[in-house]
What does this fold into?
Amino acid sequence: MKFEFGVITHYRETQPFRHAAENQKYGCELHFARGVMQYAIDMAHRMETEQHLDAIIASAATAAILQEHVTIPVIPLHIQNDNIFEALHEALKVGMHIGFADINKNTRYDLNKISQIMRIPIKVYPFNSLDQTDSIVDQAKADGIDVLLTPASCMHHRAATHNLCSVLIRLNEQQIMSAIETAVHLLMIREQQAVHDKWMRIAFDCASNGLIAIDSNHVVTAANTTALEALRQQPTDILDFGDGLDTNKTISVETMSDGQELPELTDGKGRRFTARLRHVHHKDRYLGSLIRLDEVRSMSPHIRELKTKKRLASDGFVARYEFSDIVGDSAKILEAKSKALTYARSDATVLILGESGTGKEIFAQSIHNASQCAAGPFIAANCATLPESLMDSELFGYEGGAFTGARKEGKPGLFEMADGGTLFLDEIGDMPAHLQVKLLRVLQERTVRRIGGEKNIPFDVRMIFATNKNLHEAMKNGTFREDLYYRINVLELHLPPLRERAEDIPLLVAHMIRENAGYRTHIEISNRQYAAMQRYPWPGNVRELRNFVDRLVALNGPSDSFCVNEGLLQSLDSADMGRALAAPPDSDHLVVPIGTLREIENSVISQLFARYGKNKQEVERVLGMSSTTIWRRFKEMKATS
It folds into this structure.
């Protein structure tokens, strides 16, 4: 690509520029004009508008002025220390009192350093316009200056008319070539950017979606045809487009969250569009926003359900289990499944009661998948594991800047995220008292207000709660509100512990073995071995049984048949241990085997953990022991077993 440059110089001799143009590798053509500072503006205008040159090369002083008057690139020619040394060597032949006159903004050299090296004082005379040249020369003569150094030809000629010797600082051919190469590289980059912008503009206009680009100052910079058609027909108050969309219009988007859905629009052809806002950031710097308008197309309910489930699956908000995944044919588990299936047909709130490890979340997911909101999200949260300081913001969300560390765009809470689906709150008995009050109000009003927010957000959510605590005792103790209990306990579902449905253990074990080691072709477990498993009370219920089967699989070896490890089985086959741990969870008494004091203590701790679902505070209260001592003993017991 060949470029044409205009060169505006104060030099009468243009030979260095011509040599540089001939020797540079890009084959650029130079057009010369003489001028300096303000008197070069007209020349620059002609080069841009009449000659249509690609760029202008000029001295630093002249370039600084031209950049404000033309739109094409202006490349400055800067003198360097080497140029000053050459001129100074010539000036010293005339005298030792040296002056230096240059434009005030030209600072590409270090006169103090040059003065120290040459051990010659140099007096500086800065100026900003041609009108100051006479006074500069007069002042230099009054100061006894022998020779005036200057890179400005106007100052050089003015000194000559006032009988003051001056030396013009000139650029060498290499510096001129460097300026030409800089201009070429700049133009090549601009050309590449122009081509890229043109392709992006074409892609922007050809997009079937409506697109609106907003810069970091909230100014609309571009909008494609689809967006213009939609918004000119029906402007929206939220985006404040007035009678239509124009670029350079300011849109306030700082209060909108990333991914926020905006009101639906309809164009003159009856097409409907959903609008969504996306913020663009790069290295924590806000670059702008993009509003995307998607046409709402009719689709079959089946296709819509598939698309919804695919989106929810990508976000991780889906229920994986159904009632067919619940293993067991005992009377108690079949009764629980039947009752849960009946509950699934209703929109009423469900409270699932059961010990830890009985499968409360599996039942909750099954209820969701059998309900009318199965196509919506399933979101689960455990109130016992959520830090109390974060539980409020996780459940109810927050607006941007609501507190230190909050996201700038804010964050929706679990109630908002579960809209149209199911929200499952496990271990509801561990929810702090102040949040119980807020939860009660949310359930009554069916709206939620984010932290720092000013509006109530309605939601349509199926609620399922679960706990392993005795909520009646919690209400007596004042740790759980009665009004909240009656709000969440509309449909109550009790899940039996594994010890009460021991006949399901063979089915569960076989199922877990095939899940864990599907390559097994034959499972060799005797009735005696199953009986040993059925005698053990399984305080951790199905979760503990799965852990036990995982160990059996790991220790079985690579054979095609599955055999039980007798060593592990013997650890379960203890009638005394079974009787000791099988006390009903609501009983006020414990049964412990006769043994050493340490064995008796271990038995008591094990039973309490089984009863209270490893609720540390409750075990501490009953035993009157510190949490550190309890957990140390519990870990020792696990290591021993």
